[in-house]
């Protein structure tokens, strides 16, 4: 058993060095600077913490689900002992700079950088199961899901209180990239 673990560790170390030795996490993962990186994205709402009528704000907890391909993080599994995927610290790879544009207070950025699971074909995901029916989902069963707490502006009309219904819009986008550089594709879950 110890010999297997040692041999396996050598393979992972070699793969890690080969992938990240010259990797620049500040550069968009596209082969041509004119290419667009496609990010599949959705907010998985966990809890509405507060709707504050006086301040016109909404506070919500959830996860931002991202999925994309980074061609620089691809390899031939046969050259690395059959390794098809492994975990990398999120802060070591390129991550999309998606923020909440209508942020009311606090940080609009994702502050918790979770580990990402990288597959040999360049898929960047993590080990948090999301959709039970993965065959019909645009996302694989596992996706990169950093947890978030957002405080957003929300126009609240209490004219018909207590029978009012509020609709709050959360506006997400890239902070630095134009739509031709980063295509943020919102994916909603199918109705149950």
From TrEMBL:
Q: Which organism is it from?
A: Ancylostoma caninum (Dog hookworm)
The protein in question is named: Neurotransmitter-gated ion-channel ligand binding domain protein
Task: Supply the PANTHER family for this chain.
Answer: NEUROTRANSMITTER GATED ION CHANNEL
The entry's localization annotation reads: Postsynaptic cell membrane
Q: Which GO terms describe its molecular function?
A: acetylcholine-gated monoatomic cation-selective channel activity; transmembrane signaling receptor activity
This protein's source sits in the domain of life called Eukaryota
Q: Which UniProt keywords apply?
A: Cell membrane, Ion channel, Ion transport, Ligand-gated ion channel, Membrane, Postsynaptic cell membrane, Receptor, Synapse, Transmembrane, Transport
The answer on whether this UniProt entry bears the keyword Transmembrane reads: yes
Family named by the database record? Belongs to the ligand-gated ion channel (TC 1.A.9) family.
InterPro entries tied to this protein = Neur_chan_lig-bd, Neur_chan_lig-bd_sf, Neur_channel, Neurotransmitter_ion_chnl_CS, Nicotinic_acetylcholine_rcpt
* Signal peptide start and end residues: none
Q: Which residues form the Neurotransmitter-gated ion-channel ligand-binding domain?
A: 15-134, 143-188
Determine if Transmembrane is one of this entry's keywords: yes
Q: What Gene Ontology terms describe where this protein resides (cellular component)? A: postsynaptic membrane
Q: Which Gene3D superfamilies match?
A: Neurotransmitter-gated ion-channel ligand-binding domain
Q: How does it sit in the membrane?
A: Multi-pass membrane protein
């Amino acid at each position: 058993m110890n010999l297997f673990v040692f041999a396996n560790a050598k393979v992972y170390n070699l793969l890690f060095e080969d992938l990240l030795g010259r990797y620049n996490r500040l550069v968009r993962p596209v082969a041509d600077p004119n290419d667009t990186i496609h990010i599949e994205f959705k907010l998985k709402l966990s809890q509405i913490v507060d709707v504050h009528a006086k301040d016109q704000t909404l506070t919500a907890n959830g996860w931002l689900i991202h999925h994309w391909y980074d061609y620089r993080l691809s390899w031939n599994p046969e050259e690395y002992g059959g390794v098809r995927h492994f975990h990398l610290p999120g802060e070591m790879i390129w991550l999309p700079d998606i923020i909440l544009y209508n942020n009311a207070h606090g940080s609009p950025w994702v502050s918790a950088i979770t580990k990402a699971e990288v597959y040999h074909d360049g898929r960047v995901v993590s080990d948090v199961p999301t959709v039970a029916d993965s065959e019909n989902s645009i996302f694989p069963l596992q996706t990169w899901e950093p947890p978030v707490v957002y405080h957003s502006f929300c126009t609240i009309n209490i004219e018909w209180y207590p029978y009012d219904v509020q609709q709050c819009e959360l506006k997400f986008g890239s902070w630095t990239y134009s739509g031709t550089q980063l295509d943020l594709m919102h994916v909603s879950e199918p109705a149950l």
